[in-house]
């Protein structure tokens, strides 16, 4: 019975998360929902990074870089790609089934409209007789995920021979180069001014018989939660398959795994590609949710936060890493509220990070496998010793007779 406690607790937690936006009705509803959505976003990053580092032993600092690739891919496509039933004759365009794929001019930082120059001129000539549509958000997210997977594959092929600190430094350099490139290409990415994205559901969506507008919190909540569950399901399936066995063998001893016939190159690249695609998918969805992306998402502090969440939750258990990310994100936001002790106001906007750092140091010193993962392992392994002893007694009794 005790072995089922993690499953029961997980089912209760899932039911709570599913019902939470429907039963929570306080005035700060939008704020709390935003915290939860962001928590799910970090949970995807922490869980996928846990698979890459905790399971496969590939320590990477480039996870936020692949997240940004997913976000900027869908952002650029939604900015510059349009579909029209008629050709403009002045834009760069190609036939696409019964439509025309139109690529508009870069916007730089001076334009505030998504219909630039050539397309705007064509629309003025058409005078509303031709309907031009933007790149569908869902297609942009899918392409952003695929671009993250492609980038992960290419980078994985480059770094597969590197280990430990060399791999970490390479991926850190990759992330910094990406941030510099995004900041420098102002004409295309708008640099530090940020690239605006359409909402996750531009036309709104109807759920449970109610219409929710483009800025409503409930549809993005369930979308990000569904993406988190999908990623966890894929990771669980991989961990229980031969793939999981092989990548754990890579973590323990690559040379021994290679000697036993494991294609270490293939599995290192595969795990890198899969986890990077998950980070890209999370970045694409989050980008449409917040509706603006900037190179600041690539700051090292953001990557450090993901690493800390995974370590505190449990580096070698992606479910624990995801739970730890959600819990820590909620706590870090709720601890923003300052309080007064003895007439002295304590500014928690600063001290909350101090408490977070202390928690991280305590975890690293006394709980090497995190705070949540040992609890799961404790119940999973409960009774194993008693079962083993009982089985040995039965085997010994059978041998004696």
Please, could you describe this protein's structure?
α5 runs antiparallel to α11. It is built from 16 helices and ten strands. With 401 residues, the protein is α+β, with helices and mostly antiparallel strands. The protein starts with a helix and ends with a helix. The mean pLDDT is 84.
Fraction in helix: 55-70%
Category from helices, strands and their pairing: alpha+beta
Please write the string of helix (H) and strand (E) elements.
Answer: HHHEEEHEHHHEEEHHHHEHHEEHHH
Q: Summarize the biggest pleated sheet.
A: 4 strands, antiparallel
Distance between the termini: 33 Å
Supply the key terms.
single chain; 66% helix; two-stranded antiparallel sheet; globular; alpha+beta; 2 domains; four-stranded antiparallel β-sheet; 10 strands; 401 residues; 8% strand; 16 helices
How are the secondary structure elements laid out?
Elements: H1 5-23, H2 29-55, H3 63-80, E1 81-84, E2 92-96, E3 99-103, H4 117-126, E4 133-134, H5 137-159, H6 164-184, H7 186-189, E5 195-196, E6 205-207, E7 210-212, H8 218-240, H9 242-252, H10 254-259, H11 264-290, E8 292-293, H12 300-313, H13 318-334, E9 339-341, E10 344-346, H14 348-366, H15 373-380, H16 384-400
Antiparallel strand pairs: 1-3, 1-4, 2-3, 5-8, 6-7, 9-10
Helix pairs in contact: 2-8, 2-11, 2-12, 2-13, 3-5, 3-6, 3-11, 5-11, 8-9, 8-11, 9-11, 12-13
């Amino acid at each position: 019975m005790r072995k089922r406690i993690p499953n029961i607790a997980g089912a209760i937690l899932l039911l709570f998360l599913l019902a939470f936006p429907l039963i929570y009705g306080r005035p700060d509803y939008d704020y709390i929902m935003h915290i939860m959505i962001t928590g799910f976003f970090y949970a995807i990053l922490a869980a996928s990074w846990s698979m890459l580092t905790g399971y496969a032993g590939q320590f990477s600092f480039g996870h936020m870089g692949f997240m940004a690739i997913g976000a900027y891919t869908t952002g650029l496509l939604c900015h510059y790609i349009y579909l029209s039933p008629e050709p403009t004759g002045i834009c760069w365009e190609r036939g696409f089934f019964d439509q025309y794929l139109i690529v508009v001019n870069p916007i730089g930082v001076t334009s505030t409209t998504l219909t630039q120059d050539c397309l705007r001129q064509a629309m003025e000539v058409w005078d509303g007789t031709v309907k031009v549509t933007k790149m569908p958000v869902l297609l942009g997210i899918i392409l952003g995920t695929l671009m993250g997977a492609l980038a992960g594959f290419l980078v994985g092929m480059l770094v597969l021979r590197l280990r430990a600190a060399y791999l970490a430094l390479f991926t850190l350099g990759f992330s910094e180069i990406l941030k510099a490139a995004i900041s420098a290409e102002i004409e295309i990415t708008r640099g530090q001014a940020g690239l605006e994205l359409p909402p996750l559901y531009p036309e709104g969506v109807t759920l449970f018989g109610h219409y929710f507008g483009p800025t409503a919190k409930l549809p993005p909540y369930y979308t990000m939660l569904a993406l988190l569950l999908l990623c966890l399901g894929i990771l669980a399936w991989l961990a229980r398959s031969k793939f999981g066995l092989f990548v754990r063998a890579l973590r323990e001893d690559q040379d021994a795994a290679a000697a036993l016939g494991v294609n270490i190159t293939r599995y290192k690249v595969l795990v890198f590609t899969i986890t990077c695609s998950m980070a890209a998918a999370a970045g694409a969805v989050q980008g449409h949710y917040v509706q603006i992306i900037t190179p600041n998402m690539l700051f090292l502090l953001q990557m450090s936060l993901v690493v800390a969440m995974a370590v505190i939750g449990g580096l070698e258990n992606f479910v624990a890493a995801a739970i730890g990310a959600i819990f820590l994100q909620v706590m870090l936001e709720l601890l923003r509220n300052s309080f007064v002790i003895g007439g002295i106001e304590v500014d928690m906007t600063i001290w909350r990070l101090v408490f977070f750092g202390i928690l991280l140091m305590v975890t690293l010193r006394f709980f090497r496998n995190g705070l949540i993962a040992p609890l799961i392992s404790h119940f999973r392994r409960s009774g194993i010793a008693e079962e083993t002893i009982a089985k040995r007694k039965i085997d010994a009794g059978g041998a004696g007779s």
